[in-house]
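Deliverable D4.2, example record:
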Amino acid sequence: MKQLLRSVLFTLFAVTLTSVHAFSQNATITTDLLDYPPGSTAIINGTGFQPGETVTLQVVHTDGDSLGTDPQYHQPFTAIANVNGNVSSSWFVPNDGDALGATLLLTADGVSSGRHAETTFTDAINFKDETLSAQTTTTTYGSSTTADFTYSFKVTGTGSGAQTYNISCTGLPVGVTYTPTSVTSSANNVSVTLNFTTGAATTGTTISVNVSIGIINGTATTSTLIIGKRSIMVTPNAGQNKTYGNADPIYTYGFSPALISGDAFAGTLTRDAGVNVGLYNITQGNLALSSNYTLSFVTGVKFAITQRPITITADPKTKVYGDADPALTAQVTSGTIQGTDASSGALSRVVGENVGSYAINKNTYTYGTNYNETYVSKDLTITQRPLSVTAVTDSKVYDGTATSSAPTVGSLATGDGVNVAPTQVYDNKNVGTTHVLSASGLTIKYGSNANTTGNYNISYVASPATGIISQKPLTVTAVTDSKVYDGTTTSSAPPTVGSLATGDAVNMAPTQVYDNKNVGITHVLTASGLTIKDGSNANTTGNYNISYVTNTTGEIKKITATVTAQTDTKNYDGNT
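Output generated by the structure prediction step:
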């Protein structure tokens, strides 16, 4: 019934319009199309008006309420006729339901000339309803690629030429944008693809997108845009290390792909527990990203604790030959020992016990495998053993030499013994009571007669000046002698001399004499006059206590005398 009424009214309007055109042949008004889709613009042109006059234009509905459902689009508006009496203007076809499917009357009235013109056009009377299909598409958080929705709709209006359809999307979170925001097409079948780009402000969630295209009879649809988590692979940097005892560095890492601008990691990597030199797995620790990301971690990358360099220097040592070795010690002269670390093992030295220098070796001495140890050797020096050989006070009877008894020898090293015993001598061989005695000549051996004398610093200590050499008793004994009286006491027999000291000899032989010169058989013979010398002709007589022993058997015999009378003459003297 409504369609029939519309046809009747249109027929009546056409009859009336024909009458008007016939009445006013001098003015015309036209539109560029006979039918328009919503949201388009009708181009208006008029002729036959008075040049320069104002022409009032108005578009109204031909049925029902002339101002439609939205009066703002149907208010009068004006245009100025040019010098030729022509006017130009335009009218926006409402994008809502105000004029959809309606027949519209355009009137033009010259204000000065009173001339009138009109025409009609329609608003998409054949535009069909279209429902957009719901869709689902997926993109990745922060991806530079787009997620696409493709929508198709159909336009069957009687108009012609390209039309623009605005596109509206609601329900998008901050950071998600779409293109295009409109589509222009002259086709009846229109397809448009919406490209959604996610930004850093979005989250890895599912989003409902309300899509509406500027088609009055169409309906909006709710589609689903899924923004998936962005996958990030974290790889610890290879070659990370520290020196034993130092603090751990901040563990570094690389990752791919890049984070979205403004995003950042939270937390740090860690590693397997351990403080000793070795390799330790670097682990994820509490390193994390926001819920927009799926974080994968590459395992098996090692963190190295390397040896700490130190220099160990042996302490130089000394000992006296024959003593036990001192404890061999060392100092850390470069680098530092960590915590409660301490040395273990022991140093050693080159074998040998004679006086000299012997290198001290590292042997098993160590602070452990956490240290890279450089060892500096020093020497154990064995010094000569002080040894005193002390001359002792001595007393002897002069024997023509300076020899004395044995001196005393100090303590020898274990295993050593006297090889050649030391001797001591008087400062000279002569009789005296203040002789100084000196020792010398000691040699020492070890075991199988190895000479170890050089291992001793021998000090020969002289005695005080108390050495005594007393006179050697010497007996010079007169021997029995017999002679004929010769008027002297001399005896031709030499007395006997006792034993002289070695090296001494009689210098002047002793003589003996009778106690008188007279004849007798019991004369006492007495010796005297002995002097003694040594090999160098030095007089050593004083070194002897000479006892001259008499002999009581000395004989002087009468001398046989022949008396021969001599011829003589004398004067008588009364004697014979």
